[in-house]
Write a structure and sequence with these properties.
Elements: H1 15-24, H2 30-37, H3 43-68, H4 71-78, E1 84-90, E2 99-105, H5 123-136, E3 139-145, H6 147-153, H7 155-168, E4 176-180, E5 190-194, H8 202-225, H9 231-234, H10 240-249
Parallel strand pairs: 1-4, 4-5
Antiparallel strand pairs: 1-2, 2-3
């Protein structure tokens, strides 16, 4: 598209048309856009060019971040491991619903822009990345431990159970796991616990997104089954709406009794 524009003609173009072009160009055309339009001295055009420059800088910084969050995976590859999974969970703190774990295996040097700790992303971005992760993952697994298992085992052991189930749901057994701050008992393969790993490892970040989106989807379904608790908005956490629902309606089949010991219902 940009090849159709000559530098000497841009001063005759309307600002709104230049703005429309800047909104439509691809990443590969950013520099060409600047080459053509930075010669236009009009302030509005210069402002548009500044926004394009900021887009370029943002992408450069993101690509640098992606290099950093591949470092744990790269180190594991360099140590000879070939099937490396990142593990994380969602739902350890809520009063209701399951704890969900996920494990994601990527090919070496996989880059997915904007992937990050699920808590740092909007719901819309998580849902968008969920689909991209599924499409790009070499392998992935989801594991769930329900509220009854949480009550019977305690939340930590139920989380380990969900993680083991996630690993068991992979197509191939991994030889190395990168975990968000834990070592899962009973698994024989190499494990590397990483504090705040969901922000430091692309595989763990991807697992955090899969686990979060999977659990949120379940809580939306529970909201329809058990109205009055606000599960669609609070996802089972102890909000005022949730406590009011318990007071008015009692507890449901998905509540964690062990989390409600100090609550009258």
């Amino acid at each position: 598209m940009l090849k159709d524009y000559a530098i000497e003609d841009v001063s005759k173009m309307k600002i709104k048309d230049i703005k429309e072009i800047s909104d439509q160009i691809t990443e590969d055309e950013h520099l060409e856009f600047l080459r053509i339009f930075q010669s236009d001295s009009r302030k509005s055009v210069q402002n548009i060019c500044t926004r394009v420059e900021k887009k370029i800088q943002k992408l450069i910084l993101e690509d640098e971040r992606l290099e950093r969050i591949n470092s744990y995976e790269e180190s594991a590859y360099n140590e000879g491991y070939m099937y490396i999974g990142g593990v994380d969970e969602a739902g350890r703190g809520p009063l209701a619903g399951p704890v969900v774990a996920a494990v994601v295996v990527f090919d070496r040097n996989t880059k997915i822009r904007w992937i990050n700790d699920s808590k740092k992303l909007s719901e819309a971005k998580r849902n968008e990345l969920y689909k991209i992760i599924i499409e790009n993952a070499k392998d992935y697994g989801i594991g769930i431990a329900d509220n009854k298992e949480i009550d019977n085992l305690n939340i930590l052991n139920a989380t380990y159970l969900a993680m083991k189930r996630a690993v068991a749901n992979l197509k191939q057994r991994p030889d190395c796991l990168l975990n968000d701050a834990v070592t899962i008992p009973g698994l024989a393969m190499k494990q590397i616990p990483i504090v705040k790993g969901d922000a430091k490892s692309i595989s763990i970040a991807a697992a955090s997104i899969l686990a979060k989106v999977t659990r949120d989807t379940m809580m939306y379904e529970y909201d329809e089954k058990y109205p009055g608790y606000g599960f669609a908005s609070n996802k089972g956490y102890g909000t005022s709406e949730h406590y009011s629902g318990i007071e008015a309606n009692g507890i449901t089949d998905i509540h964690r009794h062990s989390f409600l010991k100090n609550i009258k219902y």
